[in-house]
Amino acid sequence: MKLKTKIVSVSLPTDINEGISEIATSQNRSKSQVVTEAVKKYEFDIRWAPIREFGDQISAKLGLKSDDDVEQIFGRKAPHSR
User: What letter would DSSP give residue 27?
Assistant: First the structure.
């Protein structure tokens, strides 16, 4: 299944454009693929920012500073700590 695409023109600082080109070349990918992935990551980060902020507030209230603190409360390792 081929995704629908639209050609978009953007202006980028020279150093960013060069960086995109270097990444694309080193990963044997197109600049479009690199930029698309970067925009998707940015969108993900923006959407999850309020949830991360809420988690940080709860962690601060509970005095949690590490995964070990979470493990003590819940009696198990956090998924990324295995």
Answer: T
